Amino acid sequence: MPVWHDTTKQLVADGKLVLLGVTQEQHPERCRLFAQWRGFNWPILHDPINVLESSAVPTVVALDEFGIVRSTRPNPKTFATNFLAKTFQDDPAVRATPVRYGPTHPPAFDKLIAAANGRAAGDALTLWGGDKRLNDAIAAYKSAVKADPKDAPAWFRLGVCLRRRSELATREPDDFHAAVAAWGTALDLNPNQYIWRRRIQQYGPRLDKPYPFYDWVTDAEAAIRERGETPVPLPVRPDGAEIAAPLRTFPTDATAAKNPDPAGKITRDKVAAVAEVVAVPARVKPGQSVRVHVTFRLKAGGKSHWNNEADPLRVWVDPPAGGAVSARLIPADKPATATSTEVRTVGFEVKVPADATGTVRVPAFALYHVCDEVGGTCRFVRLDLTVELPVRR
Amino acid sequence: MTRSLTLLSAVVVASVASAQAKVGQRHPDFTLANIADGKPVSLSDYRGKKVLLIQFASW
Q1: Pairwise CA distance, residues A156 & B26, whole Å
Q2: Predicted confidence (pLDDT) per residue in A82-124, tens digit
Q3: Is residue B54, in this structure, part of any structural domain at all?
Q4: B58 part of a folded domain
Q5: How many domains is chain B partitioned into structurally?
Q6: ipTM
Q7: Of A21, A128, A213, the CB nearest to B56
Q8: Residue of B nearest to A104 (CA)
Q9: Reduced to 3 states, what is the DSSP secondary structure of residue A291?
Q10: CATH number at residue A339
Q11: For chains A and B, what is the number of CB pairs under 8 angstroms?
Q12: pTM exceeds cut of 0.90
């Protein structure tokens, strides 16, 4: 998009042209940061659920004063002559098909819910209901896919909402896993949908990534600060799979890491923390790889905290028979403070055997230091992880 | 290197999506939130002006 921004800057300033952006991504703040970095000063709209039904980005379409499409692939070098300088006439007989994409505004939530059109209600609730109506949006999309299990857009949009909720305090334990499963169902129904495919790849294994997605974020923030500005804050910072570089061969663990608890003697943690394990994609083909996301949270209502004075939280992974893992011993980041209560994440990748069937089980556990309460007992404990990878044939 | 890969991929797939908007047809209206302030903006707000409608992502 920088080429169009640069080419049309003066035309936009002179009021001869409007640049209208639509961003197809989960998090609007990331696009705001990108726009700030690049100096995009034209309106950019957020389409997290792909109501525009685009199958890929980027696309550029030139519209005349009447909203009629005049070019679907304008050339920056010739469009001033071929589009801007031309005079177009309206033709009332030319109608839009469909008349519109997505809900009107202001949204008629109750009317849409009452109409039992799950997808339409979900769209309105997702786009205009805010976090307060997110549960209603999820319920609406669930009703849509129950009524029509082949409603691929509803599956994709359900996944968007579940992923969004997984990042909120109102999350349900299975949200991220359910989001990945919903996206997978959508893509199975329409494998040519690149927008949907990218949403899975954003969190998926490096072998399946076309590019790193959000590796530009730290460069952008540094450049913006150098200009004396404050970067747009990101409520959910990209990390792990979202910034990892693509690979063409599965990484081999070259370290000589040894199992830190081979006999399983370390006391199991039953009170302090819980782990959520999500594999992306939700079902793996034989011989292919998945990204495993492990999220550790201190139990709600508990008084435990991480003790950061010793080793960081570590995850040990054994490769499945005939398969491989990207690393055996993976440490989580830890803050510089002596104690903390943050959510911790660890990611690794698993290549399943070429002859895998059923469910591949990957032995894994975490070791960490926790203290029961401020000034209380500190313990070094182990949490066994259930990493199960359903195989698709 | 990374970004050039991104742009290359983007160009390859762009031809897939551009089949949706057809020359000579009126573009369907839509209303979405502006990422700057969350306020609703419709394509039809720009009737009377020439518009370049750019769909993209920051990844």
Answers
A1: 27
A2: 999 999 999 999 999 999 999 999 999 999 988 889 999 999 9
A3: no
A4: no
A5: 1
A6: 0.93
A7: A21
A8: B31
A9: strand
A10: 2.60.40.10
A11: 223
A12: yes
